[in-house]
Amino acid sequence: MGGSIGGGREADDIDREAARLRHDLVSALVAAGALPDPAWRAAFEEVPRHLFVPRFYDPSGLRIDRHDHPDLWLRGVHEDRALVTHRRGGEAVSSSSQPSLMASMLHDLEVRDGDRVLEIGTGTGWNAALLAHRVGDHRVTSVDLDPELTAAARAHLAAAGRRPRVVTADGSMGWPAEAPYDRIIATCRIDSVPLPWLRQLMVDGVMVAPLGYAVIQLRRTGPDRAEGRFRGGAWFMPLRTGRSRPEAPVVEPDADDPGRPAELTPRAATDPDFRFWADLCEPGVEWRMDPEPGSGPGAVALRGPDGSTARLGRDGMVVEAGPRRLWTEVERLYRVWDERGRPGPERFGVTVEGRRQWLWIDSPDGPGHELGEPVDAVRPG
Ligand SMILES: C[S@@+](CC[C@H](N)C(=O)[O-])C[C@H]1O[C@@H](n2cnc3c(N)ncnc32)[C@H](O)[C@@H]1O
């Protein structure tokens, strides 16, 4: 990129430079096989991501604004990476997802002309704009929990000449007012399939969402049934429900508890494919790793939503405290995963039948695991 785009350069110059950089990014995505469909290729070429990301935070937390760091900003917006756009209390609360990941999720969504699409997680509005480019503004509804984000997204969309419906609401309930949808896409992480989403999806409709740390493509196969497989690993911010449970007090192990020898080393337990399975089976369990310099994972500490804790020390001894034996659960999950040949996300799938949903390996009849209590509008009792 020649010269600085700051110092009073006109918006037209920025738009021209952005179009050139966008073309380079799209060419790289096409060369990598990430945009096989010409309709999506056109959307990525023509939707100006820079209008949706006026600033972002780099990995060190430095705010890269189009006015303060114009060159870094324009370059960053046209790289194939996720960009954190909003932070609150030191935590990232919204981002613009990585272009190649969005391309693959949109591909898996199998969108057809005329489809009506619901997106959960508007964020910057960039993905809503891609969808609106593909099927038309009036066929896209996008929901975000955060009014500040939806206001900004509407402004970005208007600047890009797009007007999909942007709604401020808790997307865990979907958006019944515009249902049914042919397609539903979520860009925030869930740990079980929200039943309202499936009810709002047409029979034979497709839903694509980050379920745990991988993207699943689910098809609604009947009034009460959906099934699908995972497509590959992905990291997304969690769906925030606003219905936070009271934090359970943390149960610390007795200081003089010598513990027991662990069956698993920290290295084995932190294998990303194992963690994918373990995280889905044990939603809400927080893992903390104290890395040993130069030698991979060292000590591991777990904390469950009910306050249970487990700690695996560098001496190979594990101590557990609280109502759940968290490390014992991890060891049991590891045995199942190991016996099945250590599958990665692509060998897993999910079936939903009525209120039941389970995760399976290789086939719906294979060994499985019930997923957590479904998020639902109607709770018995
Ligand atoms: C990775 S960002 C979405 C990126 C966005 N699709 C884009 O193109 O910029 C995840 C978004 O999910 C939103 N989110 C989290 N919980 C939500 C909920 N319960 N309902 C709706 N949106 C939610 C966050 O506010 C955040 O903006």
Q: According to CATH, what is the class of the largest domain?
A: Alpha Beta
Structural domain tally = 2
**Bound chemical compounds:** S-adenosylmethionine
**Number of distinct helices:** 10
Total strand segments: 19
Structural summary, described in words:
It contains ten helices and 19 strands. It is an alpha+beta fold and 381 residues long. The protein folds into two domains: 11-233, Rossmann fold; 259-381, 3-Layer(bab) Sandwich (Protein-l-isoaspartate O-methyltransferase, Chain: A, domain 2). The strands form four sheets. It has a ten-stranded mixed sheet, with helices on both faces. A hairpin with a 2-residue loop joins strand 9 (201-211) and strand 10 (214-222). It starts with 10 loop residues before the first helix and ends in an 11-residue tail after the last strand. The model is unreliable at 1-7 and 375-381 (pLDDT under 50). It binds S-adenosylmethionine (SAM). S-adenosylmethionine is lined by residues 93-97, 120-121, 123-124, 126-127, 143-146, 149, 170-172, 187-188, 236-237, 239-241. Pfam families: PCMT. InterPro entries: PCMT, SAM-dependent_MTases_sf. One of its GO terms (cellular component) is cytoplasm. This is Protein-L-isoaspartate O-methyltransferase.
